[in-house]
Write a structure and sequence with these properties.
497 residues, mainly alpha, 23 helices, 0% strand, globular
């Protein structure tokens, strides 16, 4: 060890420079190093840089030693560097610079705020002009092309920036959402902070080349914003592929396929073997909800075609009362892509024929996807409903035995009131907007319409347990729906579609 006293410590042997060492840097902000111009930077006695020669392979420890030797070697000009640092980091200068940055940032924020206020004022003026122009007709309906034209009239530069910032994929299924919705934001109620945040999350998720359906289901469980509900339902139902590039081709193919069925089968509705089916469909459609919508001749025509084609192509079950209700939510959601007012107050026949055909075909395929999972509800003797009603009885017996005993004491059979709950998916019990919100969650569940619906029915019954337990005259009213009809108005207004 004595012999090592005169040896140079191992971390000071090499003069090689590695990242982290204190040395002059020449790059994008400095000219190339020139010894003639920067002679003062070369220490006396140092050699001019030469082409590096490949060294012999050394051991791992020696390599580590040579690569890190200068990391601790600050050289002889230690005090000079520290003095430079102290001079450069003068406290007064730093504080003055910081104050300037803060002041500049505040000014920029004020400018942005003023610009936003000016834009809002311009939009309000334009909106008032449009409202006065459409004063004679409260229904302002736009096709997709007209929507984009009106948007560009508001300002080409502003519209182009909005289109660039849109995160939804640019295909025919989303154009009404990305184009028309942006144009009518000034006429629709302002979104809350939470609603705007949720809408942004949906748009970001739908913007990618391949939509993550699992993430989309998680996000949809607590409700889907109206602006993106049509495309989200199509994705969650399995009608549209997750890949954006394949969606347009899929839509065109499936729509052509549906109208090929119409051309092939619909004329047979007057045949003797199909007359009973068509007659029953024709009777059931006027019983649907909402009333204003079902009384429109164009809507009746569309629904008759959808239901008849489905019945002909599914002979195992054929048409069964209750299936007619399952078309309505899809039809209403998909028509909202093209209109800006409530469906109940809208004349469907005013839409272009091509748009109506697209809505009809999309409604048919999405309803078919739904029924594929619950078709045993509508086959002979409806075994699916029988099984689900029995499961509901067992579930209530376990979670609220008092209600179960009360119903049993008054000889009320679950099939008397729960059959319609399973057959119509509660559509006759709650308003349409609540059904649509409920279906947001159903579609986010892999077996939402077949299994999750059972637990919703149980929650539906337990929710009004007090009124159920107070009722003593079930037999005269035949079913529990009477109890529900006597309740005070439910907070349906809190639920929006």
């Amino acid at each position: 060890m004595a012999s090592d006293g005169g040896r140079k410590q191992f971390w000071k042997r090499s003069a090689a420079k590695v990242p982290g060492s204190i040395q002059h840097v020449y790059g994008a902000q400095h000219p190339p190093f020139d010894p003639l111009l920067h002679g003062t930077l070369i220490k006396p006695g140092s050699k001019a840089p030469t082409t590096p020669v490949k060294l012999k392979k050394v051991s791992t420890f020696q390599e580590f030693e040579s690569n890190t030797s200068d990391a601790w070697d600050v050289g002889d000009d230690d005090d000079e560097l520290l003095a430079m640092a102290a001079e450069n980091l003068n406290t007064d200068v730093v504080m003055e610079t910081a104050h300037k940055v803060i002041q500049n940032h505040s000014k920029l924020q004020e400018q942005h705020k003023l610009q936003e206020e000016q834009i809002q004022e311009e939009k309000s003026v334009q909106t008032s002009g449009l409202s006065s122009a459409a004063h004679g007709d409260n229904r302002l309906v736009k096709s997709v092309s007209e929507s984009h034209a009106s948007c560009s009239a508001d300002g080409a530069s502003e519209n182009s920036s909005v289109q660039r910032s849109q995160s939804l994929p640019h295909d025919s299924t989303v154009l009404p959402v990305g184009g028309m919705t942006d144009c009518r934001t000034s006429t629709t109620p302002a979104l809350t902070e939470r609603e705007a945040s949720r809408l942004d999350k949906f748009k970001q998720l739908l913007a990618g080349p391949n939509t993550d359906l699992e993430e989309l289901r998680k996000l949809s469980w607590s409700g889907i914003p109206k602006q993106v509900r049509p495309i989200t339902w199509k994705l969650l139902s399995g009608y549209l592929p997750a890949n954006v590039d394949r969606r347009e081709g899929t839509l065109q193919r499936k729509r052509k396929e549906y109208f090929a069925f119409v051309q092939q089968y619909y004329d047979s509705r007057n045949d003797e073997n199909h007359q009973d089916t068509y007659r029953q469909i024709h009777i059931d459609i006027p019983r649907m909800s909402p009333e204003v919508l079902r009384l429109q001749a164009k809507v009746t025509e569309i629904f008759e075609r959808i239901l008849f084609i489905w019945a002909i192509r599914h002979p195992a079950s054929g048409y069964v009362q209750g299936i007619n209700d399952l078309v309505t939510p899809f039809f209403v959601v998909f028509i909202c892509e093209y209109i800006e007012e409530e469906v109940e107050n809208f004349d469907v026949s005013s839409l272009p024929e091509e748009v109506l055909q697209n809505i009809e075909a999309d409604s048919y395929w999405c309803m078919s996807k739904l029924l594929d999972g619950i078709q045993d509800n509508y086959t002979f003797a409806q075994p699916g409903i029988q099984k689900k009603v029995k499961m509901l009885e067992e579930l209530i017996r376990r979670i609220d035995e008092q209600i179960h005993r009360h119903l049993d004491q008054h000889e009320v059979k679950y099939l008397q009131f729960a059959f319609r709950w399973m057959n119509n998916l509660l559509m006759r019990e709650v308003p349409l907007r609540c059904t649509i919100r409920l279906w947001d969650t159903y579609q986010s569940e892999p077996e939402g319409f077949s299994h999750f619906h059972l637990y919703v029915c149980a929650a539906f019954l337990v929710r009004w347990r007090k009124e159920v337990l107070e009722e003593k005259d079930f037999q005269n009213h035949l079913c529990l729906d009477y109890v529900i009809s006597k309740l005070h108005p439910l907070p349906y207004n809190e639920i929006s579609i």
